[in-house]
Write a structure and sequence with these properties.
- By secondary structure, the chain is of the alpha+beta class.
- It has one domain (about 40-150): minor pseudopilin epsh fold (3-Layer(bab) Sandwich), CATH 3.55.40.10.
- It is built from two helices and eight strands; from the N terminus they run ααββββββββ.
- The strands form two sheets. A four-stranded antiparallel beta sheet has the order 3-2-1-5, covered by helices on one side. The chain has a four-stranded antiparallel beta sheet with strand order 4-6-7-8, covered by helices on one side.
- A hairpin with a 5-residue loop joins β6 (about 125-130) and β7.
- The longest helix is centred in the middle third of the chain and has 25 residues, at about 40-65.
- The model has no long low-confidence stretch (mean pLDDT about 90).
Length: about 150
């Protein structure tokens, strides 16, 4: 007796249905993961702000003149006094500035000022982005030291 070989496989319709389901999943899943701000992006923002603050302190000491880092919280950008460049920050992060009352220009802009002896007005910039994760960039008023904290 000869046995008939039964070929098993998928029909074209079954393959098409699986492909459509995979395409839908591929299109819907990424927005779920990208709605928040990544920790890497927040850390990079904290480092960028800390570098700007350190540069302002260094400039104040080397030139013998007060230098300030002015931060626009709403526009997500900062600039250093005496420098024409404007440094842009990612739009997804939430920024909060805590500084001396005399350094506030409005409720959305303010500055942290450094003096020729290395001291500063002091302050804190908070970088947040959901998931209860935030970074704090602290400036000590006495020494002008800049520190990033989790």
């Amino acid at each position: 007796m000869t046995s008939a070989k039964i070929q098993r496989g998928f029909t074209l319709v079954e393959l098409l249905v699986v492909m459509v389901v995979m395409l839908l999943a591929y299109g819907l899943v990424p927005p779920l993961f990208s709605s928040g701000v990544s920790g890497t992006e927040m850390k990079a923002t904290a480092r960028q702000l800390a570098a700007g603050l350190r540069k302002a302190r260094s400039t104040a000491i080397s030139t013998g003149r007060e230098t300030a880092l002015a931060l626009d919280v709403e526009g997500r950008r900062f600039e250093l006094s005496g420098d024409k460049r404007v440094y842009r920050l990612p739009g997804k992060v939430e920024l909060t500035l805590f500084t001396a009352q005399s350094e506030l220009s409005s409720d959305k802009t303010g500055a942290i000022r450094f003096y020729p002896d290395g001291s500063s007005t002091g302050g804190r910039i908070t970088i947040a982005g959901g998931a209860n994760r935030k970074y704090l960039v602290d400036v000590d008023w006495l020494t002008g030291r800049v520190v990033i904290r989790d």
